[in-house]
Amino acid sequence: MVVFDFDIDDPADDLEISVSDPASQAAVNDTAINQDPFTEVSLQHLVDCLPSLISCSPLSIPLSSGGEVTLARRDLFDARFQLINDEVNDEQKDNSPELGFLNAPSDLVQGVYEGGLKTWECSLDIVDYLHAENPVFEGRRVFEAGCGTAVPSVYILQNLFSGLPHGKETHLHLQDYNAIVFELLTLPNLILAWYMSPASKAYRDAAAHPSPDETPLPPADASIRAEIPITLELKTAFLSSLEAYGIRLRFFSGSWSSFDLHQSGGTYDIVLTSETIYRTDSVGSLIDLLQSVSPTVDSLTSRLSISDGENSSQSYLCLVAAKIFYFGVGGGVTNFVEAVEEKEGRVETVWEQKVGVGRRIMRIQWS
């Protein structure tokens, strides 16, 4: 078994951070993989799939400037329980691939499962960088590719919900290969971001005195473990807050090569991805996606209003966070940078960790 350094889920989760052995991996690479097509998963469908209770724990993100950011994250064991329970209660799903995620010998099964149930280390690095740079999110189009547990998007949503409604429409779009990841972790984590923010106060105040047969609400404190009852009232309040703040959540599953930019509504102002360059044979499709969803530098001047008072090159971000090298699967920063430059992109390292496993955040600009 080859170690794939490494994620930050609790040791109690007891999932190996690994890929199949080199011989098995070579066999996979030599076999044509049927990639899942582009599909939009509706927000309402994901809301309807929520369980009656979400268990969450603190995710503490150390900051380079000192201190930390704490987000609430759904417990992986809780997501596992939901998936197993759904399978048991639905005879039509007896042979579905989702349950295999729990027992797979690898965290990466090419063309089947791409690691979206795990929280990978470099997603925390993006939060560190965003917190330091403090870009404007309100009124922007934000896209996270290969989102998985969506830690950067959770941070952004909590940031949006921490202020007052601003009258600007903000698009937060998330993409992952596996739609089931949206149900189990992505949307639950986004709901937790809302619950832990001032935007949920009216709902929490209204539900402060539950009836004897109802579970009392925990405090809106991301630093403690909690169990959040997912009631119809909570779902309604969450959707109402999205509307009040002008936040448009959309979810897209399927392969990067099948992504439909027209259906998603066009290019984005902020593009984020982390731990997605681990396999050399998928880097080309990732770069094509990043280039297609990004405006060119030349187009930004005409796209942005002069009244924004911002330099056009600073108002757009395309950030790729990754380890320097991925042992066992061959991907890494050097090959990625070479591939971007072949596409006439420019790569700038804006954040770097040299101690231990080397990690970088790269900013990409397209001519």
UniProtKB/TrEMBL annotation:
Primary subcellular site in the record, as a coarse category: cytoplasm
Protein name: protein-histidine N-methyltransferase
Transmembrane spans: none
GO cellular component, one term: nucleus
Record's subcellular location: Cytoplasm; Nucleus
GO biological process: methylation
Superkingdom as given in the UniProt entry: Eukaryota
Homology family: Belongs to the methyltransferase superfamily. METTL18 family.
EC number: 2.1.1.85
Source organism phylogeny: Eukaryota, Fungi, Dikarya, Basidiomycota, Agaricomycotina
MF annotations from Gene Ontology: protein-L-histidine N-tele-methyltransferase activity
Species of provenance: Guyanagaster necrorhizus
